[in-house]
Design brief:
Layout: E1 6-9, E2 13-17, E3 22-27, E4 37-40, E5 44-50, E6 54-60, E7 65-70, E8 76-81, H1 83-86, E9 99-106, E10 111-122, E11 125-136, E12 141-147, E13 150-156, E14 162-169, E15 178-182, E16 188-192, E17 202-208, E18 211-216, E19 221-225, E20 231-236, E21 241-243, E22 246-258, E23 261-271, E24 286-291, E25 296-301, E26 310-312, E27 315-320, E28 333-338, E29 342-348, E30 352-358, E31 362-368, E32 383-388
Antiparallel strand pairs: 1-2, 2-3, 3-4, 5-6, 6-7, 7-8, 9-10, 10-11, 11-12, 13-14, 14-15, 15-16, 17-18, 18-19, 19-20, 21-22, 22-23, 23-24, 24-25, 26-27, 27-28, 28-29, 30-31, 31-32
Organism: Natrialba taiwanensis DSM 12281
Protein name: Pyrrolo-quinoline quinone repeat-containing protein
Pfam family, one: PQQ_2
């Protein structure tokens, strides 16, 4: 349920970030398993992006490092410690570490955008510290945007002049789930919120031309917003539903908008009163695809928990784990969908597929081993898979 690995594709390389800090580059067109280069990155390299000739890496670790490496050699070009802004960990444990949760690159403009957060808790007192950064290609920080909320995702528009930042937890003075920033100055151009009670707000954001698609944690709906934040439509995804004597819901965790087609993915079922239930929301672990008007095109079951959602041309790719209650290992794998027509043959994995990258040629995926808490068997291995898209 928390990020520990990463994978990225460039024209020539498959790059894998591993839990032990290793970052490995493989030649895409070489049959040899020998890497072109391998280095150790500070912390766990969990977010990857690339500019023309450098790889940009964000970590989860003691100082939350963002660093850039030469794509040809792996030599480090620059590094920045986000703990300088969001603070060092307040205690031991993975959840206390500074975490570069999302990273976007704009190769046309030589820009890097990243968002880092840190969580601390003292009894009932819970706090988030977060900063959005804009870097030039040489590592110079152009601007910062700081809040006391928990960011979950970012996306930059095609024109390169707007950056959307989604916040899934707002329990301090920052009280909106979405801000859209000017990429040149870092100033807020507009903001939006589902207007719901509680601290849950937004799960993911995705630009499509002048529009922005939003997966809302607040009311478990999907939205399409116009250029200034005006609501074009909203869609019930996994809203609160009465089943027996329980009220069930699931969070819309991911959204991808491309070519007037918007895809949402929902997550695990929770009960409103206890967050624990043996029942399942009818729309949990569901992929829902609609057109630009919000009209349904198709939907499909994911069979398990989706760690992310990525697109390549007309293919949707989702790495899936088991259902966390039923724990059916048959759900492990990489799900594939034709954007027009729905499910196509997937690729099963013995372990859990946790990270994917895709382009018009290849899907790359990280598999991780898993041992269910009531079993001694270890399923799968730590492995990198490459899957031709014509398969």
């Amino acid at each position: 349920m928390w990020t520990r690995s990463s994978v990225h594709l460039t024209a020539d390389l498959v790059l894998a970030g591993q839990w032990d800090g290793r970052l490995t580059a493989f030649d895409r067109d070489c049959d040899s398993l020998d890497p072109r280069w391998e280095i150790t990155h500070p912390g766990h390299p969990v977010t990857l992006g690339s500019l023309e000739d450098e790889l940009v890496v964000g970590s989860r670790g003691e100082v939350g490092t963002i660093a850039a490496y030469d794509l040809a050699t792996g030599e480090r070009r620059w590094a920045y410690e986000t703990a300088t802004d969001i603070g060092p960990p307040a205690k031991d444990g993975i959840f206390a570490l500074p975490y570069v949760v999302a990273l976007e690159t704009d190769p046309d403009r030589g820009a890097v955008y990243a968002v880092a957060r840190r969580y601390e808790r003292d009894g009932a007192d819970r706090r988030w510290h977060s900063t959005v950064f804009a870097f030039d290609a040489d590592g110079r920080v152009r601007w910062r945007y700081e809040t006391d909320a928990s960011p979950i995702s970012i996306d930059v528009n095609e024109a390169g002049d707007r950056l959307a930042v989604g916040y899934n937890r707002c329990m301090g003075s920052h009280d909106v789930g979405l801000v859209v920033l000017d990429t040149g100055s870092g100033e807020t151009r507009w903001d939006w919120d589902p207007g719901t009670d509680g601290d849950r707000r937004v799960g993911d954001v995705s630009f499509d031309g002048p529009h922005l698609a939003v997966a809302s944690h607040g009311d478990k709906r999907g939205y399409l917003l116009g250029p200034g934040g005006e609501e074009r439509w909203r869609l019930d995804l996994a809203v609160e539903t009465e089943l027996g004597d329980e009220t069930l819901y699931a969070y819309p965790n991911h959204v991808s908008a491309i070519d007037d087609r918007i895809t949402f993915a929902t997550g695990n079922t929770y009960a409103k009163e206890s967050r624990d239930t043996d029942s399942l929301h009818p729309n949990e672990h569901q992929l829902t695809v609609v057109d630009a008007a919000g009209d349904p095109l198709w939907n499909a079951s994911l069979d398990g928990f989706a760690h992310e959602l990525t697109t390549a041309d007309d293919t949707l790719v989702v790495p899936c784990a088991q259902h966390f209650r039923t724990r059916d290992s048959a759900a492990h794998g990489v799900r594939r969908f034709d954007a027009e027509n729905g499910p196509i043959e997937g690729v099963p994995t013995d372990g859990i597929a946790t990270a994917v990258a895709a382009d018009e040629r290849t899907i790359a995926a990280v598999e991780e081993p898993v041992a269910y808490h009531d079993e001694t068997q270890v399923r799968g291995e730590y492995a990198l898979h490459t899957i031709p898209l014509d398969r």
